[in-house]
Write a structure and sequence with these properties.
Chain lengths: 472, 265
Amino acid sequence: MKKIIIFGSFALALCGLIYSQVNISGEIHKTGEKPKIAVPDLRGVGDAQRLMATFNSTLSSELNNSGQLNIVPKTSYPLQIPQQPADFRPHASGQNQGTWLADWSGPPVNANYLAFGYTAVQNNQLVLYGWLYDVAQANTTSAQLIGKVYIGSLDEAGARKVAQDFAADILKQFGAVSLIGTRIYFVSDRTGHKEIWSMNYDGSDQKQFTSYRTITSFPAVSPDGAKIAFTTFPLLASSRASADKLRSSIAEPRENLGQPQIYMHSLETGRKLVYYNQQASMNAASDFMPDSRHLLIYSSAGGGYSVYMTDLDGGSIRRITHSGSIEVEPKANPKTGADIVFVSDRGGLPQIYRMNIDGTDVARLTTGEGEAVNPSWSPDGQHIAFAWTRGFEPGNYNIFVMDVATRDVVQLTHGAGRNENPVWAPDGVHLVFSSKRGRATEIYTMLANGTGVQQLTTQGNNEKPVWSRATQ
Amino acid sequence: MTERERSHTYKFGAIVLALTLSMITAGCSKKTPPPPPPPPPAPTVAPTAPSARATINSFTAEPSTIERGQSSTLAWSIGNATDMSISQGVGAVQSQGQRQVFPTATTTYTLTANGPGGSDSRSVTVSVGTPPPPPPPPPTGPRLSSSDILQQQSQDAYFDYDKSDLRSDARDALTRDAGLLKQIFGQDPNFTVVVEGHCDERGSAEYNLALGDRRASAAKELLVQLGVPADRLKTISYGKERPQCTEANEECWQKNRRAHLSPGQ
């Protein structure tokens, strides 16, 4: 009973922490206010030790890449590293041996939290005993936030898995959504045709999803992770044979393709689902509504290029914009479902606009300078990331983040290549985007403050990433 | 009785008389060697009977070289013959005439003519060849398909950056294209054409999908105004998905900002 009360009080304290964290992620530049965590290298018993290099590098990169924590440099750590709760013993102050909480909370470490533990081989499996302590507490009982056993296979993959699981539990304590298990869907031309592919958040396990052998692009994944919509130029049946003949000479493929259409697939079975396209020269998928039951599209159906909403089978179509200008890339606020950002050239060059879900109260969000395209909502519905040529030649896009309420913008990339299609990760802290920094366009992730850039793809050209919020 | 028959009768009587005499002589006088038999009487031509030799005046085959299945005509003229025939199954003929023959292989025809004054013969040969392959059709110049004509002769209409209105050079190109299309459609009633809209790489792919559609529609609209039947034209926007030039400079970008005509299904 006492434990529950204590735990409850810490839950309250954590709520405060989470709250401040939301503010921090809202104010992208205040990186100094992140919680500080000490993560000394863990050691393994016997045969487990050979896997600990992999384990420790995975654990620290997961925590570091989360963008939620500051890892205290190891050089300031005490000499004695506790490996289990029994190693903690109060001692006279000033000794700073590492065996008491204050040795970690006081100078020179000045940490808020300490992650520790050890691994061993049991029943031919790798077993991690992992703890997270709030080192500001007076005793080890109240300090313990995590005390858990993690099991993986006795190999490198098992070491990575237990490190990722431990990191995910730690990040959960700070209100962070773990990206482990989430998938990034994207477009790759590595087979010679643009197809939809998917990969893990760190670029591992890249898999081909479509095989239409034509031009397939612009993926959108439903928030419940059940469906994917995209746009395909269907290969017309009568030209299939000649297309096969032409495959060897990719230089100028002359297959006869149909007008671009929206396709809907199940992510569970991979199969194509029924979607009725409008009779129009152009239909393109853009985004699912937060309820995962409606799709935002843009189409030339009614003259002009307007935003529409349809059911998941293309039925019950509702027209949302009527300007006669080019209106593309509608994206629904994931938090409210009540407003949409989109790209329009109604004022000249393409800019980003916001409107209500019924098309009323249209307002331009960007200044009118350059070209602003590819808007994407943050999961909290307060920010958008987008690509903008402001200050650069046409085509030279950089990634920006805007606070939609204040319209304050922060520029995240600064002319390194052509940067497009930023999309928020489910954790609200990372962005995935494409960039042409060499000969090819590749997919990168970075923190929403522009740091921690990591390249995820290397084969062919890769573009149009979207981050599936649900884990598969 | 003709004179010839009569002369035969006389000859016969003389021979019988001579034989009879020689038998009597041999049977009656053994002691003296018999004289050699007299030579048979020299045949004498009755002064009243004509005895001219048979003569073939002419024997021809026209033509002398034929293809299998064709015919040749044998023609002849014979004098002084009492019976005449041609070999190879043609048979007895009159002294003057012609006959069509249909040999399936090279054949030699021999005409034989017999008469009281002698016989004559002459041969002609009809050569039979296998027919050669038919001659090539008369040269009329290469026949181009409608697709080839379109791809070789149509002109692209070029656009300014982020624009879909037709510049004067684009109007000129499409005006020539309209003439070409009317000509092709007139000759090929099933032919259709796709008006493709393309963009350079600088705009976003999503926006360019619409911009390319605008360009294709603008080009189609002018073609229809110029009299090209609308139901033979389809549009498609490739946005920036199918550039024909991939370098990052204005010369290349201009090549990609275009409306292009391609053959339909």
